[in-house]
């Protein structure tokens, strides 16, 4: 019988939903999904985004920064317990990465949420440079979250350009972003 920690997202017997660090790191349990825990974790981010989306831009960014800080703390605690560097069951990184990406959405709509979701997941899964660089550069809770922040920033750039194109094509000039 193996004593090494498992990387199977389902086999997370240490998950304790009464502990705030576990609730956060495991994305309220989304990371326990037997299939595509990162995608399920990103889905958890959508209602959080909908709650934060109507905040003024600076307040939105401060809220996201706080969620990032809390996530680094929670991820550090969980990986210290599991002994794993980046278990797939930790999905808070997807949550905050998506929130970074959606700062570029010019309006809250299903179309922008779907586009942000798809772009973010593609950048997170395929990890083009500089996402791959961030994944290799940092460790601990920051290391878990850093590559997703970069994937979110890359999505933000693409969404920003898309918003500009849509706005210009509608004759509105350069789009003013909601956040």
Structure description:
This protein is an all-alpha fold. It has one domain. It contains seven helices and no strands. The longest helix is centred in the C-terminal third of the chain and has 30 residues. It is globular, with a radius of gyration of 17 Å. The N terminus is likely disordered.
Key features of this structure:
globular; mainly alpha
Short description:
The chain has 7 helices and no strands. By secondary structure, the chain is mostly helical.
Distance between the termini: 52 Å
**Overall number of strands:** 0
**Main sheet makeup:** none
Q: H/E order of the elements?
A: HHHHHHH
Low-confidence stretches: 1-12
Secondary structure layout plus pairing:
Layout: H1 20-25, H2 37-52, H3 57-82, H4 92-101, H5 110-126, H6 131-137, H7 140-169
Helix pairs in contact: 2-4, 3-4, 3-7, 4-5, 4-7, 5-7, 6-7
